[in-house]
Design a protein that fits this description.
This protein is of the alpha/beta class. The chain folds into 3 domains: about 80 residues, Winged helix-like DNA-binding domain superfamily/Winged helix DNA-binding domain (Arc Repressor Mutant, subunit A); about 100 residues, D-Maltodextrin-Binding Protein, domain 2 (3-Layer(aba) Sandwich); about 100 residues, D-Maltodextrin-Binding Protein, domain 2, CATH 3.40.190. Strands 3, 4, 5, 6, 7, 8, 9, 10 and 11 form a 9-stranded mixed sheet that branches. The chain has a two-stranded antiparallel sheet with strand order 1-2. Helix 1 packs across helix 3. The radius of gyration is 21 Å and the shape is flat.
Length: about 280
């Protein structure tokens, strides 16, 4: 059988080359790290030679991998252009999208780039805000659709992927040992504020709110200062911060689901097209 280069495998190779690590590349293409590793193994089998050097600091491309990367970029460009011409080149208009900041940092660049290649005539306006504020915008018809967080137990058919909430602090900091526990949390009505408080109250652990803000950069800044523990989705944790495990004495936190919400029961054509793109591009973690 003639060997072929699968488009999905090539897209994952580009993600690995651009991020320099399997975990970050996996987050970009919406796969688990083990699934991405299997993809790279299949691509190496097709190529008949190693494409990646795996080191303690990440991965780099071999000479063969670098050569394939050049072809991959061209093949992906032509593939996406062909799809855009066949499916979306004549679609135009304005699409107003909302997204929580933690998802925007990790997922939005890849999602927007892919959608723009399929629908080059569509203009996108993006606003980043916590889920409660996004739902308010949808209710006012100030946005067409939004990626939003929902509690565990939501309808599985509607959940695109699940993200663990985790306790986060500066490496080596003693904030988690303090009594009361100093917390830096999101907006009071957001899940990353409500769920940690609920977990601490259930175990009787005393805490105080040292900082409350809708700003992801503000929460990360407080954690980096060593003055407070914060709560983030695992995919949004920067490399320089530490995820606190059971040894910290903090209670486990639930997952939150990522789903789509619309400003009307029957979304418009552009909102439906973006929703389909998200569900295809961002499968469950």
């Amino acid at each position: 059988m003639t060997a072929t280069l699968d488009i999905d495998l090539l897209r994952s190779l580009v993600a690995v080359a651009e991020t320099g690590g399997l975990s970050k590349a996996a987050a970009r293409v919406g796969r688990t790290q083990s699934a991405l590793s299997m993809q790279m193994q299949r691509l190496e089998e097709v190529a008949g030679q190693p494409l990646l050097y795996r080191t303690g600091r990440g991965v780099t491309l071999t000479a063969a991998g670098e050569r394939l990367l050049v072809h991959a970029g061209e093949l992906l460009r032509r593939h996406d252009e062909a799809l855009a011409e066949l499916r979306g080149a004549q679609v135009s208009g304005l699409l107003r999208l909302g997204c929580p900041e933690d998802y925007a940092v990790v997922f939005l660049p890849h999602l927007l780039q892919g959608f723009a290649s399929l629908y080059p005539q569509v203009q996108l306006e993006v606003v980043c805000a916590p889920t409660p504020r996004l739902l308010e915008q949808l209710a006012r018809h100030a946005a067409d659709l939004a990626l939003v967080s929902v509690q565990a137990g939501a309808d599985e058919a509607d959940v695109i992927r699940r993200e663990p909430l985790v306790w986060v602090a500066r490496r080596g900091a003693s904030a988690a040992m303090l009594d009361p526990l100093p917390l830096a949390l999101g907006a009071p009505d957001s899940l990353d504020h409500v769920l940690p408080r609920r977990a601490l109250e259930a175990t009787g652990r005393r805490f105080r709110i040292a900082y409350a803000s809708s700003s992801l950069s503000g929460l990360i800044g407080m954690a980096r200062s060593g003055q407070a523990v914060t709560v983030l989705t695992r995919t949004a944790v920067p490399d320089d911060l530490e995820i606190l495990g059971e040894e910290s004495g903090l209670p486990p936190l639930p997952d939150v689901g990522l789903t789509l919400a619309f400003d009307r029961e029957q979304p418009g054509a552009l909102a439906a097209a973006f929703a389909a793109h998200v569900r295809k591009t961002l499968p469950g973690a």
